Amino acid sequence: MTDLVPHHAEHIVQAHRRLDAHDMRLLNIEIAQAREAERSVHIQKSLGEIQESIKWVIRLVVGAVIGAGIAYALRGGFHVG
Description:
Blueprint: H1 4-74
């Protein structure tokens, strides 16, 4: 009977070690997941800023084309004859 107590104690110690290892793995996964979430937020913010910049570039190009068309029309560019 005395042999069972050290045997069980060793199994309990091994189980605690495995649980500690699993806890460490879980903690590392949670940290990595938090990093990825923060990175995703930063990427979304950057993409939003890029999208706003592209919107303004398109507005400027369209405005320039319209301005050129008006200037062409005012100089008699559509005059036939």
